[in-house]
Amino acid sequence: MSNPKIDVVWEPIPNSSQELALCAPADIVFFDGARGPGKTITQCMRFRARVGIGYGKFWRGVIFDREHD
């Protein structure tokens, strides 16, 4: 039986803080920086990667995104 082809729609920038945040074994990751380097998409992908793991359908998460001027 062959493995089905999986279309990759997003992956972290290699050797970046995105990759580090996605691989971190911590439950909470603080991700800071200037506008544009992909913090929000990394938050969403970290959340998505863990849906259904551990607590199954009862798993919940929250994303706090604050803007400071």
List keywords for this structure.
69 residues, mainly alpha, 26% helix
Give the N-to-C terminal Cα separation.
55 Å
Total helices: the number is 2
Biggest sheet character: none
How many strands appear in the DSSP assignment? 0
Strand content: under 5%
**Percent of residues in helices:** 25-40%
SSE pattern, N- to C-terminal: HH
What would the average pLDDT be, to the nearest integer? 76
Q: What features would you describe in this structure?
A:
By secondary structure, this protein is mainly α. The chain has a domain of about 40 residues. Helices cover about 25% and strands about 0% of the residues. It contains two helices and no strands. The longest helix is centred in the middle third of the chain and has 11 residues. The protein is globular, with a radius of gyration of 14 Å. The N and C termini lie far apart (about 55 Å). The model has no long low-confidence stretch (mean pLDDT about 75).
Give the helix/strand layout.
Layout: H1 17-23, H2 39-49
Question: Can you describe this structure in just a few lines?
Answer:
This protein has 69 residues and is mostly helical. It has 2 helices and no strands.
